[in-house]
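Hey, does this match?
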Amino acid sequence: MATEVYLVRHGETMFNQLNKVQGWCDSPLTVKGINDLKRTASALSQVHFDNMYSSDLKRAIDTVHLMKNANVVSDIGKIRKLPEFREVFFGTFEGDDINKTWDQVAMAAGIGHEDNVAKIINQVGLRKFREATKKADPRHLAEDKDELDERMVRAIQVLGDLTKDEQRVLLVSHGDFIKTLAIKYWDQSDGNHDIPFPNNGSVTRGILHDNGKFEIVDYNMDANKL
């Protein structure tokens, strides 16, 4: 059977609030983040899920438990944590100021000073943007497009194996990872240019088909649109 996947972005964190790069590093949810998630959880409280999953980072785990505790029509057991759905890895830039980081990436991409990530991606394309991020990283640890594509494909395969007998699941992941999934699997994206960044607590809905094909059908829906 096909599986409907509700991808939820975690709530706002301290690093989000402080405008810091947050990939595999972690910081706690803020009060605003928790309150925003409560609205999402309330909007989904009457939606039946066969299971709930999460990235293995704490901000995602805390988020999925808020979703689980608010849902009154689902019987969810222990949450399975999936490292394949972690945020994009930014290497040495983890914890740095976001604007300064994108400026360094723009310089590495050869376009001069620019700290607007959408403008950088749209000018050089997603592949060159990821390559420039790895190049600008002093230790060259940041994920490039091929590494990220490989992880996304593996994530979908892992999810497909876990959800063979499940009709609808909720999975908490991260902003850049969800956005990059949508760039790859949403028919409103050309696969190369930027799309809006998903809001904290937003829901992106995908369909995982029997043949393993994955598609995004709704992107970045806030609680008031659910």
